[in-house]
Amino acid sequence: xxxxxxxKSRRLFAAAxxxxxxxxxxxxxxxxxxxxxALNSYGEVQAKSRDTRRQAAIDTIAAALEACYNxxxxxxxxxxxxxxxxxxxxxxxxxxxHFASSTLYDSKLNKIQGDAPDVNGEYQYxxxxxxxxxxxIGMNQVCAGYILRAWQEQRPDSSYTKRSLxx
Length: 167
Fold this sequence. Notes:
Layout: H1 7-17, H2 21-69, H3 80-84, H4 91-95, E1 123-128, E2 145-150, E3 160-163
Antiparallel strand pairs: 1-2, 2-3
């Protein structure tokens, strides 16, 4: 038969074999804080990635507009209505060769617009006349320049802006 242990030795033995309740709570809190920090960092990385995609889309649109200006558009830029015409056989397919019209749509599938870019409409195209005034919306307008803008999540008060090379 084994000798009987005292109460003191039983408490020491129990403490050595397991965690106290407070230790478990502290461990859970520490893990929770680490998870919260990781999720926050992940969200920031995702926002930066979406901003980079928006900037790349604006750069792609600008390159296509410049190619059109020096080619089939005969030294003019499209009006907003023309740039929004991405239907089969429409202005975009006819004049912007090798251009994916899906680039004109933001992450929420909103088509490029004339209003200032924001969370609801991420891309803006503003065609300009030679005097810098906004070009009319109609189909057969002669526009001498443009401003392209993209809304950014990381800096919502500052849009990514690209201007035409010829105005």
